Amino acid sequence: MADKTVDGRPWTGCAVLFLQSLCPGVNLLSLFKDERGKFIVFKVIKLTLTDSAGGLGGYEILKVHDADPFLGVEMKFVDVAACQQFLESYSSGTVRQSLSQHGCRLLALPQELTVETQLKASTHILDLYLDKLELCLHQIHLSQPERLRDEEIDHLEKQLQDQAFSHGPQLTPLTQEESLPSNCFKFQNRVFEDRMLTAADVQSFSNGVGRHWKHVGRALGKNCRALKSPAIDNLAYEYEREGLYEQAYQLLSRFIQAEGREAKLSRLVKALEDCKLTSLAENVLDVQP
Asked: Average per-residue pLDDT in the chain?
């Protein structure tokens, strides 16, 4: 069980995570000030914290504020174990990796999102001594929150919950009487907007497909010359030493390179459906099972 008390007293602490995109044309601060962009950026932050703190418990976001050129995320920890896991994830680079993956996917970027980060507790920059975990925990514990959760965060949290329960606003039930728009596709009787595959899609696919990558490759190869026989066997031989992740990564990268603008999300989802890999398709689409 996670440690929520230390010496019999509740453990709490506060830290601020500062974020700045290094990608041209992607300004997280400007996006958060935009009504539509605000929710997407908040969802990227929330998913990243869920990945790096070991779930939804043990912390809460109090406020997201303007710290130009950074976007500041004020966090309250109520569980020392969750705080420790977050610090370990931050120190190892996992937080930046999660930000990159979720940001790339949710913002539909054609390239990886590179993010500069800084972590502070009060005036202490924790990046300077991440190798001293106990010291970082101590500084976070000393930095007690000075505010309750912002009303804006309450609203965004509710939006996120509503989206989770309704499978997200991008999904709409499809009846037989409705015609499917040309820029959309159907999956599990719901409609998704189609788009080009992103770096985040490639990573999600490569992480989850495992030994089934060849089957997906053959399904994609039905309509892609670059993946016709013996291309897939050649990939298997060429990247055998690097393992399944790299073989899958190279497969989808080759598909994108060959098909260009026609390397669409719908084609990957259809191939995954054909191979009975529905759960992986749900993961790529960020759908609650």
From this structure: 85
